[in-house]
């Protein structure tokens, strides 16, 4: 389940100012785990992912896929997304929607597939950056009813091209009693060989029991 702040470090949406020319970019990544909102999607195993994005005049769309490992033998996630990013008053804004699909799920008719609307805001202050994002699904994964996810994070450039950042998120479910939880992460990221990104990130959720450390490498191309 891909979002801008995945441990894999690949953006489903971009907090960027509008550009006039069309831009096509791609990405591919390897990671020791695929963590979505604090929960492993690969049974604590490695993941490979990749996708393509198109942006023009602030509007963007894309597709992204990743390996997963669910107990029902689902092995693939496929995300389709689109939105609009713009700048105003020193802030960057982003609004859009994303559809999460699991093509080889035994319940591929729609039980696991779901859609989310999202809106985000971000701002940079020299070496410090901040962002927040709200996602809403009218019918969340597993047909568990409406769900909301609120996340925010701070990033600090600490030198040598390395960024330290921390994030916190809160998941709320209307029809899934007792399932609400918070997730936390802190990590380091940077770039080697010009366009190869790396990340090292620690994750946990409220109540404990889901601690993990993820190492990832990603490469972007095009643009």
TrEMBL record:
The keyword Signal applies. Residues 1-21 form the signal peptide. Keywords: Signal. It comes from the Bacteria. This is Uncharacterized protein (TIGR02001 family).
